[in-house]
Amino acid sequence: MSQELVSVIIPTWNRAFCISRAIDSVTAQTYPHWEAIIVDDGSTDDTARVLAERYGSDRRVRYEYQENAGVSAARNRGIAIAEGNYVAFLDSDDAWEPWKLELQVRCLEYCPDVGMVWTDMAAIGPDGGVVNPRYLKTMYLAYRRFGEKDLFTKSYPLSECVPQLGELFPGHRFLVGDIFSPMITGNLVHTSTVLLTRERLKRVVGFNEELKVSGEDFDFHLRTCREGLVGFVDVASIRYQIGRPGQLTSRPYRVHMSRNFLNTILPAIERDRQRIRLPQRTLRATVAYGHRWYGEQLLLAQSRAEARRHLRESLRWQWSLRALGLYALSWLPGGSIRILRWIAHLPARLWKPRTSANPGAPDTPVRLACKSGSDH
Asked: What is the pLDDT of residue 354?
C-alpha cells in the first residue's frame, strides 16, 4: 500500500471565517501521508491568527504569506514548495470527504498511466445543506455536449480499484480516457476535486498568472489533459460551497471568466489543431460561443463598443439568434440593460454544437491568426 506524500495546496484570501472547515477536512483524511500548504494571498482579516491558534502545533500544516497576486500565483507558490509525489488543490471555502485522498491515490496506483484524477462534487448552500448531491455536470455545461463513451475508453468498478473502499460505492466506477479534445469546448474538471501525479504536474508546469481574477482553472486543466490520460471517479468527494458573495464564479467575475475562456481556447486551437479530434463545425461553434459569451458579459458591464466587436466576431464564426439579439441591444439606450439581464437568464444550453469523437467533414478550416482577440 502506497505511502507517497500528497501535497495539498490551499490558496486563500480573507476567508478566516471558513478556512478551518477546509483544513479540518484534510486533517480528517483516512490517507495519512499528506502535507497542507496554505498560501495566504494578502489577507487583511484574521486568517493568520486563526491558523496559528488552531494549527500552529501541527507540522503537517504550513502557512505561507504573500502580497496579493491572485489565485494563480498563490497556487504556483504552493506548487513551488510542495514536496509530495502527488499534488491536490483545495479552495478555502470547500471541504473534502474523509476518504477523498485514499480513493484517488488508490485509483492512480491501479492505473499508473493516468496522470490526473478528478471526481464529482456535492453543492452546499450558505446554510450548510446539500443543494445538489451531484453538481459537477450541472456546473460544467460541456458535459451536455458529450456522452460517457465520447469521453472515456476504459471503465473499472471501484470495488476492483479500491477494494477497501468499494463497499461504500456499490455500482460506481473509475473511468479513464483522453479528454483533451472535448475539453476544448469547455471545462470538465473542478479544481478542488483534482489529484495529480508529480510527473504530470512537471509537464503542465503551473497556473497561468496572466489569467487574472477568474477562469484560470480551465487553462490549467486543459493543459493537464493535453499531456495524456486522465481518470474520473463518479462519486462526489468534495462539498462545494455555492451562494456566497465574493466567489470567483459569481456574476461580478463572469466578465473575467468569459475573457479567460476565450484567451484559453484560441491559442489551444491554433497550436493543437492537428490533434484536436472534433469536427470543424464544433470548433467554429466553440469560438463563436466564446466571443458571444464575452460580448454578453461586456454588455452587462456597459462596455458596449467592445461588446459589439466580440458579438460581430461571434456572428462571423457562426450565426446565432442570441448573438444577433445581443448585438442589436448594444445599440439601444442604457435602459435596455433590463432586457439584457432577462436574456442573460435564458439557458446557456441554447448553444449546443454537434459533437463527435471523430474528425468532421473537411468544411472550412479553422484559422485563428487573423481573428480579433489579441487585446483580451
From this structure: 41
**What confidence score (pLDDT) does residue 245 get?**
59
Domains and CATH numbers, the chain: 6-241 (3.90.550.10), 251-350 (no CATH)
CA 86 and chain centroid, separation = 19
- What are the backbone angles phi and psi of residue 148, rounded to the nearest 5°? -60, -35
Give 249's DSSP letter. Answer: T
- DSSP letters of 176-222? EE--HHHHTTS----GGG-EEEHHHHHHH----TTS-SS-HHHHHHH
Confidence of residue 248 (pLDDT cuts 50, 70, 90): very low
Query: Are β-strands 34-41 and 116-124 bridged in parallel, bridged antiparallel, or unpaired?
Result: unpaired
Model pLDDT, residue 252: 61
Q: What is the dihedral of CA 11, 14, 16, 22, to 10 degrees?
A: -30
Per DSSP, the three-state class of 86 is strand
What dihedral do alpha carbons 258, 259, 262, 265 form, nearest 10°?
Answer: -90
pTM of the model: 0.88
The single residue listed with the C-alpha cell 467575475 is: 253
